[in-house]
Amino acid sequence: MLTHNRDLHGVDLGWRPKGEELPWRPSLQQAERSENGAPNVRHRHGVKVEAVRTVRELVSARAPRPRIRYAF
């Protein structure tokens, strides 16, 4: 669920194209501008909320402690 950008996406495609299928999903992302002015994309808020909920449920079913904390 990390912020990503097109330049790094191109580099990552050269290293591990299969690994880019999940993080680079324009239909689930929104544009943003980094502090240095570079264009980035990040996962939409609702997508992150659902993903974090799912991970919390999966982990708590197997390892209820420690609690997972997440901020975005």
Write structural notes for this entry.
Residues 1-23 have a biased composition (Basic and acidic residues). The chain has 72 residues and is α+β, with helices and mostly antiparallel strands. Helices cover 39% and strands 14% of the residues. The protein is built from two helices and two strands. The protein has a two-stranded antiparallel ribbon. The longest helix has 18 residues, at 45-62. It is globular, with a radius of gyration of 15 Å.
Fraction of residues in helix: 25-40%
Mean pLDDT over all positions: 83
Could you tell me the radius of gyration in angstroms?
15 Å
Q: What is the strand arrangement across the widest sheet?
A: 1-2
Number of helices: 2
- Report the sheet-strand fraction: 5-15%
How many strands? 2
How many domains would you count in the coordinates? 1
Determine the N-to-C terminus distance.
10 Å
Catalogue the unreliable spans: none
Write down the overall geometry: globular
What profile does the largest beta sheet have? 2 strands, antiparallel
Structural class by sheet pairing and helices: alpha+beta
Q: What string, H for helix and E for strand, traces the elements in order?
A: HEEH
